[in-house]
Amino acid sequence: MGILVAIEGLDGAGKNTIVQRIRAQAADHGISMTTLAFPDYGNSITADLAAEALHGEHGDLSDSAYAMAVLFALDRRRSAPALRAALAEFELVLCDRYVASNAAYSAARLDQGPDGEVVRWIRELEFGRFDLPVPDHQLLLGVPPEVAMDRAQGRADTDASRAKDAYERDADLQTRVWRAYLDLADRQWVSPWLVADGDEAVAAVLRLTVPGASLRS
User: Which residue ranges does the record assign to the Thymidylate kinase-like domain (predicted)?
Assistant: First the structure.
């Protein structure tokens, strides 16, 4: 059975970049690995509905933190068989966002803490009712809101397909999400957490599979 690691962070934190760096280093160390990304835009109807809502469609759907959380949870539930198959086949499975993102964004929207009702509800919904695999480790990329938001803006400026959604345009929300993530990491919510970035983040994930592994120079 492989190790499941969730990579978490703000929009613009560089999650995909870190995942690709880990992939390259894992290949150097002979580690078999695969990745999944959530939301699975373009493949999951619930993910696409959520994205459309955050870009102003579907009436007041995006006004409900619980409704949006359900859409994102259903997106992961759809991928549960593929995730379990990946864990059976590969030594390392990385998720670019996972359940903690739902908890952090929902808690931030509702101004609740890590022990609040919505975080408990998401845990029970996704790990309980939907029976999603619990991550063995969770990595929060230590990129603060001001840096992540600048990156997200630059991405939107150069790629018309990456226009910022309602969550990304809300600077106050992004700051609250960052604090929610830090609270979840401090509580070691669901499984062990690490807050790191860059080389430290890549090396930490490699060591989960190959103790003492070092980065390729």
Answer: 7-189
User: Tens digits of per-residue pLDDT, 139-190?
Assistant: 999 988 888 888 767 666 676 556 678 888 899 999 999 999 999 999 999 9
Residue 163: CB atoms within 10 Å: 12
Which amino acid does the sequence have at 170? D
Q: List, as own/partner pairs, every contact residues 18-26 make where C-beta atoms lie below 8 angstroms and the sequence separation is at least 24, other chains included.
A: 18/139, 18/141, 18/197, 18/201, 18/202, 19/94, 19/96, 21/202, 22/94, 22/202, 22/205, 22/206, 23/94, 24/216, 25/202, 25/206, 25/213, 25/215, 25/216, 26/92, 26/206, 26/209
Under 8 Å between Cβ of 103 and 184: yes
Task: Please give the CATH number for the structural domain made up of 3-37+76-209.
Answer: 3.40.50.300
Q: What tokens does 23 get?
A: 């992939």
Q: What is the pTM of this model?
A: 0.90
Q: Which two tokens stand for residue 213?
A: 């592994």
Structure tokens at 169: 């345009």
Instruction: Say if CB 143 and CB 14 are below 8 A apart.
Output: yes
Q: Which residues pair with 96 in a beta bridge?
A: 7, 37
| 3-class state of residue 155 by DSSP | helix
The two three-digit tokens of residue 90, written as one number: 């590969």
